[in-house]
Design a protein that fits this description.
Blueprint: H1 40-46, H2 65-73, E1 84-90, E2 93-101, E3 107-112, E4 125-126, E5 133-139, E6 146-152, E7 158-161, E8 177-178, H3 189-198, E9 206-210, H4 212-215, H5 229-243, E10 247-250, E11 254-255, E12 268-272, H6 279-291, E13 295-300, H7 326-329, E14 330-331, E15 336-337, H8 344-360, E16 365-368, H9 371-375, H10 397-413, E17 418-421, E18 443-445, H11 447-457, H12 468-472, E19 483-487, H13 507-523, E20 527-531, H14 556-574, H15 576-579, E21 588-592, E22 600-605, E23 614-619, E24 625-632, E25 638-643, E26 663-665, E27 668-675, E28 679-685, H16 686-690
Parallel strand pairs: 9-10, 9-20, 10-13, 13-16, 16-17, 17-18, 18-19, 19-20
Antiparallel strand pairs: 1-2, 2-5, 3-6, 4-5, 6-7, 6-8, 11-12, 14-15, 21-22, 22-23, 23-28, 24-27, 25-28, 26-27
Helix pairs in contact: 5-6, 8-10, 13-14
InterPro entries: A-amylase/branching_C, Branching_enzy, GH, GH13_cat_dom, GlgB, GlgB_N_E_set_prok, Glyco_hydro_13_N, Glyco_hydro_b
Family: Belongs to the glycosyl hydrolase 13 family. GlgB subfamily.
Pfam families: Alpha-amylase, Alpha-amylase_C, CBM_48
Length: 691
């Protein structure tokens, strides 16, 4: 027999190397019985005598007729329970059941260490119902076995593919799937019981976005150096608790061949990457965060996939998972392929994948990548490179229908989670419920706020007075969707510079501007997301090949910024006016937008209880304003509850101490305050604080 070659490819390559795994016997499954015990009852309980001699591959199925029907209709959302490799006992023999969807294949077999990668010894059976499913039971295949599918296409080409439903993969550059179980003793019962309340849209969402490989490394200068999921958890949990973030969001952890893709070019959708350990190690990671009261979000990529030899592209020699027409099936920005959302079986695959992470890993939600590219046929395409839909428009109707079905399934089966769209266009109704004509996401990234705000902050403070409308424009549409305010990884790579270096001025002014930016972010309507390192002001662009520069925390300026983010998180989580009405226009009011020459702006955040009202004063120039008048209701005393210019945050110390009593000014009451340079001051009624 010929020995198959094991693919070891990187994203976007077609490289193959020959593996020489240790051979194991691939005989017919006759298991040697255990010695007969004296007790006949014990004999029945302990014998491993097979009922009969088994063939190399036995015809067996986990699919019912209803399973196949739902799969072909695009309505089977638990395919991971059927497809892939599943350990089981068949007729008294331990082994593994394999099943794979390869509708245009003419021959499919399982190859691996157990048969010395022989393409012809363990041939799967095609189902009789024309579903395209190949399956069979192979005795003796235990946990931890390497395997792939050998597929012969109609044109005679021979492919060696990883399992689309594999729960575990070899560490790159090796590309075999690994048989494994998903057994784990979860201890997050309290979190899971309460998360429908904790993860609700009227609760605080302060998300810490991170890339596991580059948050910390055992050796900052060794790209092959990784911590295990368990080791990361032991470092990350206390840090997130100290900083006060409510959730972490992981850049894609699904198996991917190329580090530089940051996980966005996925080949193993059902497996946490083996760079950091096993599925159980990742379960421990999630469990640890949950037991500490921290939610876990995953970056999910249903938009495109790479063309590696062992991946989904032309899986059986035909366009199984991707559109055949390159105008819909090829993504020019990322040199990758687009899922065929019009194919029922592909929608079942993707929605099953989403529910798999919620089911088996207790994930609290998804940030769905590149939604704008999915729902627009002309995204990054010139005229002639895309085909309008049946109505002549640019909406990708099949992708929109898939996203609606995805959101309906997620919220139906897991009401305690949220879905978040990375969607940069003005497409209406992204977070509107499906039954009201929307797409059904829980939240949407507010890309307009991010772009306009960073553009404003880059300007010299003197010129900000001429661009105030650009700064305040976000409030005009802030309540059209349920927005999350992101300062994400995308803003600190590819020449965009880190957040601190986007700011004008000397080193002190850069830090003051950054604290001012975060003050505005945390008091603006919407939930929050901050990429790792931004919380203390990293001074270099993000580099996935090393770790964050933690040594910066020896300097008072970076310590001060980090301490200020802690205080902002605490403020956000303890003040209902900042989260309870974060998607409600009644929760925001401009108090003063008329002081353009001094670039001072004042606004209020409110909850249903007027006693919780906060006043926020922003000074966009480096000139302090003393005895600045703010109109308030009534004569009750006020107190400053946070000031970005406090010396504990590396500020200049222009703060407001003690009680602040409004004075009568005509028919109004004015509160006279000190407004810090390039700073924010936040006020609340003292009577409320002490009642």
């Amino acid at each position: 027999m010929a020995t198959a070659k094991k693919n070891e490819s990187k994203a976007g390559t077609q490289k193959k190397t020959t593996a020489k795994p240790k051979a194991k016997a691939a005989s017919k499954a006759k298991v040697k019985p255990t010695p007969k015990p004296q007790d006949p009852v014990q004999e029945m309980a302990t014998t491993t005598e097979p009922f009969r001699n088994l063939a190399n591959v036995e015809p067996f199925t986990l699919f019912t007729a209803q399973d196949v029907y739902l799969f072909r209709e695009g309505k089977h959302y638990r395919l991971y329970e059927k497809f892939g490799a599943h350990r089981m006992n068949y007729e008294g023999v331990e082994g593994t059941y394999f099943s794979v969807w390869a509708p245009d294949a003419v021959f499919v077999s399982v190859i691996g260490n157990f048969n010395d990668w022989d393409a012809y010894s363990h041939t799967l059976f095609p189902r009789w119902d024309n579903s395209g499913i190949w399956e069979g039971f192979i005795a003796g295949v235990a946990e931890g076995e390497l395997y792939k599918y050998f597929i012969r296409a109609k044109d005679g080409s021979e492919l060696r593919k990883g399992d689309p439903y594999a729960f575990h993969w070899e560490k790159r550059p090796r590309t075999a799937s690994i048989t494994t179980n998903l057994d784990f003793r979860w201890r997050d019962k309290a979190w899971m019981k309460d998360r429908e309340v904790t993860n609700a849209l009227d609760k605080p969402w302060s998300v810490y976005e991170l890339h596991l490989a580059s948050w910390r490394r055992p050796d900052a200068f060794d790209r092959e150096s990784f911590y295990n999921y368990r080791e990361i958890a032991k470092m990350l949990v206390p840090y997130i608790q100290e900083m006060g973030f409510t959730h972490v969001e992981l850049l894609p952890v699904m198996e991917h061949p190329l580090d530089a893709s940051w996980g966005y070019q996925i080949t193993g959708y059902f497996a946490p990457t083996s760079r950091f350990g096993t599925p159980q190690d990742f379960m421990y990671f999630v469990d640890s965060l949950h037991r500490a009261g921290i939610g876990v979000l995953l970056d999910w990529v249903p938009s495109h996939f790479p063309y590696d030899d062992h991946g989904l592209y032309r899986f059986d020699g035909s366009h199984v998972y991707e559109y055949e027409d390159p105008r819909k099936g090829f993504h020019p920005d990322w040199n990758s392929y687009i899922f065929n959302y019009g194919r029922n079986e592909v929608r079942s695959f993707l929605i099953s994948n989403a529910l798999y992470w919620l089911d088996k890993y207790h994930i609290d939600g998804f940030r769905v990548d590149a939604v704008a590219s999915m729902i627009h046929l002309d995204y990054s395409r010139e005229d002639g490179d895309w085909e309008p839909n049946v109505y002549g428009g640019n909406e990708h109707l099949e992708a929109l229908q898939f996203l609606r079905e995805f959101n309906m399934a997620v919220y139906q089966y897991y009401p305690g989670v949220q879905t978040i769209a990375e969607e940069s266009s003005s497409y209406d109704g992204i977070t509107r419920p499906v039954h009201l004509g929307g797409v059904g996401f829980g939240m949407k990234w507010m890309m307009g706020w991010m772009n306009d705000t960073l553009k404003y902050f880059k300007k010299d403070p003197y010129f900000r007075q001429f661009h105030q409308d650009e700064f305040t424009f976000s409030i005009m549409y802030a309540f059209k969707e349920n927005f999350m305010l992101p300062l994400s990884h995308d803003e600190v790579v590819h020449g965009k510079s880190p957040i601190v270096f986007k700011m004008p001025g000397d080193d002190w002014q850069k830090m003051a501007n950054t604290r001012l930016l975060y003050s505005y972010m945390f008091t603006h309507p919407g939930t929050k997301l901050l990429f790792m390192g931004n919380e203390w002001g990293v001074t270099h662009e993000w580099n996935d090949a090393t770790q964050l520069d933690w040594t910066l925390l020896q300097y008072p300026s970076h310590q001060g910024l980090q301490h200020y983010v802690k205080r902002l998180n605490h403020l956000y989580k303890t003040e209902p006016s900042l989260y309870a009405t974060q998607f409600d226009p009644l929760g925001f009011e401009w108090i003063n937008l008329n002081d353009r020459s001094q670039s001072v702006m004042v606004y209020a955040r409110k909850s249903e209880d007027p006693k919780n009202t906060l006043y926020i004063v922003l000074n966009m120039t480096p000139v302090a304003r003393h005895n600045y008048g703010i109109k308030v209701q009534g004569k009750e005393p006020w107190i400053e509850i946070l000031n970005s210019d406090a010396t504990e945050f590396f500020g200049s110390g222009i703060v407001n101490e003690g009680e602040l009593l409004p004075g009568k000014h005509g028919d109004d009451y004015l509160l006279l305050v000190n407004v810090p340079p390039l700073g924010a001051a936040i006020f609340k009624s003292k009577n409320i604080l002490t009642s």
